[in-house]
Amino acid sequence: MIVAKNLTKKFGEFLAVDHLNLAVRKGEIYGFLGPNGAGKTTTIKMLTGVLKPTEGSVEILGMDLRTHELEIKRRIGVVPEEPRLYPHLTGQEFLEFIIDLYDLDRHEATKRVVELCEAFKVDFLGKRIGEFSHGMKQKLILVSVFMRKPEVIFLDEPTVGLDAKSAKILKLLLRKYASEGTIIFMTTHILEIAEKMCDRIGIINKGRLIAEGTMDELRTLAKDERATLEDLFLQLTAEGEDIEEIIKEL
Ligand SMILES: Nc1ncnc2c1ncn2[C@@H]1O[C@H](COP(=O)(O)OP(=O)(O)O)[C@@H](O)[C@H]1O
Ligand SMILES: [Mg+2]
């Protein structure tokens, strides 16, 4: 449902994402985990058509992103790391703009907005976005994406800026959407988030996918059933010879 083949991005000579291959299935929450600068945001930008890959291809819902960009964009939702929003619009005006842009059923969408705003404690739609904090912008984007009920949702570090309760609500909502068949791809640099929220986890370091699997599979890779993902993550992303050993076995 999301397929990346040899996805690569070079900024000049710098290889930010290096021949990445991954596949995310229907109804799955896929966690893309890695330290800062690993290439997560660059990857999500290529997967969502924001950034052109240097090499490789992306397929979403069975369509090639190069030839079906508009149709794909209509059916996916993206929650970026740094939402770029129009500062002069109010939250309400922004949601109405999205309803028009995607030609949504106004009645349906409005009903969902009310429910979502209640869940995320959004009571500031009358304010101008320029006055929003990062967390408020994050919540507005979440509402604008979820009201559309997209078939695939990409989220880049979605819990950064959210308070604990909103983060919990986000987690429950994503689980519910996944159980209804939505495909969810999220990045995080926080291990516990990947561990708690995701069905399958890919670990990226220095642009390369260095491990992938369910928590159980990753534990097996760590050769210790009691190992936490943190142990494995540190083993895999640390500098040193033992890393080479692990990578050889993957
Ligand atoms: N537009 C750009 N030009 C040059 N280098 C970039 C650009 N965007 C990202 N990078 C570099 O690519 C690497 C991966 O960045 P990014 O994908 O944002 O990492 P992450 O989201 O995992 O923290 C970093 O070293 C970053 O400095
Ligand atoms: Mg990032």
Low-pLDDT ranges: none
The small molecules bound here are: adenosine-5'-diphosphate, magnesium ion
Q: Helix amount, in percent? A: 40-55%
Q: What would CATH call the architecture?
A: 3-Layer(aba) Sandwich
CATH superfamily: P-loop containing nucleotide triphosphate hydrolases
Q: Work out the strand percent.
A: 15-25%
Gross morphology: globular
Lateral arrangement of strands in the main beta sheet? 6-7-8-3-9-10
Mean pLDDT: 91
List the helices and strands and how they pair.
Layout: E1 2-11, E2 14-24, E3 29-33, H1 40-47, E4 55-60, E5 63-64, H2 69-75, E6 76-79, H3 91-101, H4 106-119, H5 134-146, E7 152-156, H6 164-179, E8 183-188, H7 191-197, E9 200-205, E10 208-213, H8 215-221, H9 229-237, H10 241-249
Parallel strand pairs: 3-8, 3-9, 6-7, 7-8
Antiparallel strand pairs: 1-2, 1-4, 4-5, 9-10
Bound molecules: adenosine-5'-diphosphate and magnesium ion.
Written overview of the protein:
By secondary structure, the protein is α/β, with parallel strands linked by helices. It has one domain (2-249): P-loop containing nucleotide triphosphate hydrolases (Rossmann fold), CATH 3.40.50. It contains 10 helices and 10 strands. The chain has helices spanning 40-47, 69-75, 91-101, 106-119, 134-146, 164-179, 191-197, 215-221, 229-237, 241-249, and strands at 2-11, 14-24, 29-33, 55-60, 63-64, 76-79, 152-156, 183-188, 200-205, 208-213. The protein has a 6-stranded mixed sheet with strand order 6-7-8-3-9-10, with helices on both faces. A 4-stranded antiparallel sheet has the order 2-1-4-5, covered by helices on one side. The longest helix has 16 residues, at 164-179. The site of magnesium ion has 5 residues, from helix 1.
